[in-house]
């Protein structure tokens, strides 16, 4: 009976065989597994693997050392080791991962939000966020391929954090969204979408003055720190809220005849 494999790369690296965690001892064994999983089933050439395994320079007899590490990983996998294949283009290891599942759930949540299925969007985006255990690909150094994969997942995570609150607003849960968005804005004050949703949450909770004040605060932040203006979505929301209230002019002092 074929064994079920799964790997987690969002946060600490974990490999499971038939639902049981498989211990991987040593930095190099973990790097090898992470490098193979990064390829998402594509064969990885020996030089490409060596660059990921030894980012500060290859050791002597790097190819031999790589073959030894592959043999050790196959041995640790047991019967599932036959899935780590040697092809003419390099080593190949196809295994389901949490980062694939995460990306699929985020995409599904965004689609459901676009068709106004707020409940479905909340379910998918919350399921995606539950998979997030920390920075992806922690065992690999910052090569261009790793940085690109890591950055994509981090951006999807930020997007999921924002759009699950948009779904809660669409579902009619503005007070819950307001609490989360206040924290999200504090965590990443330059992400414009968060300010837009925060203003909408204040509007939905009957606080239009506070909504306008938050947009003014963001406009001032952008101007002072980056020399920029808000984007079209926030400008449209500012217009919807109207101009800021004018302070009353002081009345001139009345003449007094002596």
TrEMBL record:
The Bacterial transcriptional activator domain, residue ranges: 97-242
Segment forming the signal sequence: none
Gene3D superfamilies, per the entry: Tetratricopeptide repeat domain, Winged helix-like DNA-binding domain superfamily/Winged helix DNA-binding domain
Biased composition (Pro residues): 242-251
Domain OmpR/PhoB-type: 19-93
Region (Disordered): 239-258
Family matches, as Pfam families: BTAD (PF03704), Trans_reg_C (PF00486)
Keyword Transcription among UniProt keywords: yes
The keyword DNA-binding is annotated on this UniProt entry: yes
Source species, domain of life: Bacteria
Protein name stated in the entry: SARP family transcriptional regulator
Organism: Kribbella yunnanensis
């Amino acid at each position: 009976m074929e064994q079920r494999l799964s790997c987690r790369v969002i946060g600490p690296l974990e490999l499971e065989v038939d639902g049981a965690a498989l211990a991987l001892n040593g930095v190099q064994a973990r790097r090898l597994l992470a490098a193979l999983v990064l390829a998402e089933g594509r064969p990885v050439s020996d030089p490409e693997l060596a660059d990921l395994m030894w980012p500060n320079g290859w050791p002597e007899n790097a190819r031999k050392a790589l073959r030894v590490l592959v043999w050790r990983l196959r041995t640790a996998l047991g019967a599932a080791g036959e899935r780590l294949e040697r092809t003419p283009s390099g080593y190949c290891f196809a295994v389901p991962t949490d980062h694939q599942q995460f990306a699929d759930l985020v995409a599904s949540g965004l689609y459901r939000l676009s068709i106004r299925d707020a409940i479905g969007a909340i379910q998918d985006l919350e399921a995606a966020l539950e998979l997030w255990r920390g920075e992806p690909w922690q065992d690999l150094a910052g090569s261009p391929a790793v940085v690109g994969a890591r950055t994509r997942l981090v951006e999807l995570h930020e997007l999921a954090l924002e759009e699950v609150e948009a779904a809660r607003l669409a579902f009619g849960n503005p007070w819950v969204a307001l609490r989360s968005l206040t924290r999200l804005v504090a965590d990443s004050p330059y992400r414009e979408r968060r300010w837009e949703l925060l203003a909408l949450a204040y509007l939905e909770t009957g606080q239009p003055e506070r909504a306008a004040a938050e947009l003014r605060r963001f406009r001032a932040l952008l101007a002072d720190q980056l020399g920029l203006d808000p984007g079209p979505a926030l400008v449209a929301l500012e217009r919807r809220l109207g101009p800021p209230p004018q302070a009353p002019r002081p009345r001139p002092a009345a003449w007094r005849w002596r």
